[in-house]
Design goal:
Largest sheet: 7 strands, parallel
Mean pLDDT: 91
Helix content: 25-40%
CATH class of the largest domain: Alpha Beta
Strand content: 15-25%
Structural class: alpha/beta
Number of helices: 10
Order of helices and strands: EHEHEHEHEHEHEHEHEEEHEH
CATH architecture of the largest domain: 3-Layer(aba) Sandwich
Low-confidence stretches: none
Radius of gyration: 21 Å
Number of domains: 2
Distance between the termini: 54 Å
Length: 272
């Protein structure tokens, strides 16, 4: 095995039971990694984006083939463990397929006053707020949508962990660059965004008497609030918003997936 640039010497895995590989076990249990203060990135592009991000990278576990592809992007001082695909799957406990994993340190929850586009009341700002969105794939896609349309922040209340492996993967690594905030008081933070930072609060609902999205005149600073599939937003959260807005649909349909809805709202309002 060749010695790579940045004075990195890959470490060959001798046993799946090696103590240093502990972060790569129990990957199906989202709670374990959260308690340990780390997260797992999976897949070449996601790991590449992690390495390019500001976040701390603890280690990598890769096949030799994937190591060669990542050679120019590795960080000095970050251990790189090399194993066969079968060995990686034995460590992870399921079929990894992609042959590249990385362990990162979870960042702290973003603070409103530290997000530049929110703190600067003269700047345009879109905040995406989520209530009870518990599906990891939906969370990942919503964060990817937020990044694509320039959202300032994703605010989450009682949602799936955005740093769970599936959410990280489906976000295509955008969890590493979009500011994320977890709150126990969504309505209080919506009030703060409105009263303190001048954001108009828009509840995304599936009610026929709500205003159609196409007719909304976008304010410069807005919060788009989305709820869980099926249940939607709680009545209390809807009441805490300034507008109720819906996506007009055919009579045979009454709603779309929450991640799809977020993309539609962001596309219309970010470009409006």
């Amino acid at each position: 095995m060749a010695v790579l640039n940045l004075h990195i010497q890959p470490i060959s895995v001798a046993s799946a039971d090696e103590r240093d590989l502990a972060p790569y076990r129990d990957l199906k249990d989202a709670r374990v990694k959260a308690r340990e203060g780390v997260f797992i990135a999976e897949g070449f592009e996601v790991v590449r984006r992690l390495l390019a991000s500001r976040l701390e990278v603890c280690s990598l576990l890769v096949t030799e083939c994937k190591l060669e592809r990542l050679a120019g992007e590795l960080r000095s001082g970050v251990p790189v463990y090399v194993a066969t695909l079968a060995e990686i799957e034995a460590i992870a406990g399921f079929n990894v397929h992609r042959g590249v994993l990385a362990c990162g340190r979870r960042p702290e929850s973003a603070k409103l006053e530290q997000v530049p586009a929110i703190a600067d009341c003269a700047a345009d700002s879109i905040v995406v707020a989520l209530e009870n969105v518990t599906d990891a794939i939906n969370i990942g896609v919503i964060i990817r949508n937020a990044a694509a349309f320039g959202a300032s922040l994703v605010l989450m209340h009682r949602c799936c962990d955005a740093f769970y492996r599936r959410a990280v993967r489906t976000s295509m690594g955008n969890v590493f660059r979009v500011p994320l905030r977890v709150t126990d008081d969504l309505r209080g933070e919506l009030r703060q965004l409105h009263d303190g930072y001048g954001h108009q609060r828009i509840a995304a609902v599936a009610h026929p008497d709500a205003q159609p999205l196409s007719r909304i005149v976008r304010a410069r600073r807005i919060v788009l609030v989305f709820g869980a599939e099926g249940e939607g937003l709680s009545p209390e959260t809807v009441d805490a918003c300034d507008l109720r807005v819906t996506i007009p649909m055919s009579p045979e349909s009454d709603s779309v997936n929450v991640a799809v809805a977020s993309g539609i709202f962001l596309n219309v309002l970010a470009n409006g």
